[in-house]
From TrEMBL, chains A, B, C:
This is Trimeric intracellular cation channel family protein. It is a multi-pass membrane protein. Residues 5-77, 90-162 form the Glycine transporter domain. InterPro entries: Gly_transporter. It comes from Roseibium limicola. It is found in: Cell membrane.
């Protein structure tokens, strides 16, 4: 139930970020729809393909409707959304937090491997956004020093660790998603970042 | 039968567009082969992966031969092809029209969901070309205002609607592909486009 | 056994190339980890998805550990690795040689189609690197005239040909991987390249 809810939240806010990018580029209504859908379901689609389970949105039309709803919201009420502050970065952060837990939980249930679950949580939390940025021709999260991928990794790892310690899945999911969100929030508010590699050789 | 034929047509003309891009970039013969193959089979591959059915070209060597044939055609008779006018845009349009019907038909048969079938038709009709453009470092269709993705969506939706109204699959496929082609053709000939989003906030 | 070994080698050296790219871009430790992992397992993941078999690294944690080890190596001993000469290009060459044989072998065993096996060997030997270059925003191998994709194709084709001639799989794998490596090595040392297409029409 909580996981189902996190899943919808993750899809919805990622879809919103896709629609925001489409709006900032001045694209047409269909591009809104496709940027929203691609960003919303991208990560979970990759997760399901890699796990060899049926792709989640082919079984439940609700996910596609959520994506369509988010692009409509942005198309008709874009200025309202933009007035919220840094809506793109915050929606992205919430989506990442929800998705890393979902990805790790599903992968852990299927493979029972902690390592695979952590990687899958991280990949699927970041893949939708990276796909959005590549198709939009923008710089993607892997190339920026700010904490983003690391927050997804930390959230996935915490979830898997808590589950291995037999903690209840609701509590574990809540704690892990909050942890990922706090780390990412710190990066947005206070510019937290990881140190970059300083090469000592000429290239 | 008609669907089988549309499938080969879609693969062939998309493969041709891949080879045209390779030729315009002055790439070598193998790059012709791979741009042709990637563009030709990209959309259908994504469709089959998402539907969880065997990838079509792993079952029938004919598709890969068609892609190889198209790169050879372009390599040896490129100037002839280029003299046809706007071969890249028209081949792309025909491929898109054929592919959106095929994608929607296969997805509708497998999932019975109209929404999934429409998305799948649209995605798989546009994915090969987007992949081609990303690998080639060109601006992709999602970022251009002209009617392209919307034509694929309209074709997919018409096919699914006609099939739900119990129309014969041949007639439905023919009508839907023609509709998509006319919409896209209008964009090529008369610059039809969808209105872009006009933001009222500063970024 | 030999194939298993080639598989680890391919993953390891591709992972190293991912980490080298991360280091040259001055990215953080996690970006090292993800560039290494994405490049290391990318090709094989695509191969397994297309063949409809379980994705290899979901069954054996060793592959992910190898990727983690390679990013650690580069993070802590990067200058040492860089002092080896052209480590990026050579590691990439070895990975390509090992991966094209692995990809062709697995695809041939599953589909029994020589054509599919050759394409799969070539695609999976080049996909990890292309993915790395697209995410890093660099020019990818398909767009460069030097021999790279063609070496992977030659290696895959030789392996399949030798196997069809009933040659022992170890010998065939060794010969094919060496052949691919020699072709690519020639491109690195002596700038071997394929002739590009010379268009005779204005664009």
């Amino acid at each position: 139930m909580l996981l189902q809810f996190l899943d919808y939240i993750g899809v919805a806010v990622f879809a919103l970020t896709g629609a925001i990018v489409a709006s900032r580029k001045g694209l047409d209504g269909l591009a809104f729809l496709f940027f929203a859908t691609m960003t919303g379901i991208g990560g979970g689609t990759l997760r399901d393909l890699l796990l060899g389970v049926p792709v989640f949105w082919t079984l439940d039309d609700g996910y596609l409707m959520v994506c369509a709803g988010m692009s409509a919201l942005m198309w008709f009420a874009g200025p309202l959304v933009e007035r919220l502050g840094k809506p793109l970065r915050w929606a992205d952060a919430i989506g990442m937090a929800a998705y890393c837990v979902m990805g790790a939980a599903k992968a852990f249930a299927v493979t029972q491997s902690a390592m695979v679950a952590i990687l899958m949580g991280t990949m699927t939390a970041t893949f939708g956004g990276v796909l959005r940025d590549i198709v939009a021709g923008e710089k993607n999260s892997f190339l920026k020093p700010e904490i983003y991928v690391s927050a997804a990794l930390a959230g996935s790892a915490l979830y898997v660790g808590l589950r291995m310690a037999e903690m209840d899945s609701w509590v574990a999911a809540g704690l892990a998603a909050s942890f990922a969100l706090i780390l990412r929030g710190g990066a947005i508010v206070a510019d937290w970042s990881l140190p970059g590699y300083k090469s000592t050789v000429d290239k």
